[in-house]
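Recap slide: CidA/LrgA family protein, sequence and predicted structure.
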Amino acid sequence: MFSIIRAFAIILIALLGGKAIAYLLPFSFPASIIGMLLLFIAFNTGLIKVHWVQSGAHYLLTYMALLFIPIGVGLINYFDLVITQWPALLASITFGTLIVMAIVGHVFQRFNPRD
């Protein structure tokens, strides 16, 4: 039980740090992304051990599908807009996915060259 509380506290501290940095920035940037970067840096520098966060992260991932229910319900409010704009939505989802896959593949190949 203590490990889950510790994991949630570490994740929350990273998020709050991200919110503080996002508040100080002169432009808009998602605080959650900054918080993940802070957590990544803390992992890589050894400030935080992965096993300290692993149990809480596993618990969050187990119930992550529940977090998408409010988004789905909110989408129903704009169903008429989704129906009228479905070609643009389909194109952006398709091309966005392909672009992300190409970039990730390129970066992976660049950092892991074949010998």
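Residues 75-115 form one domain.
The radius of gyration is 19 Å.
(End of recap.)
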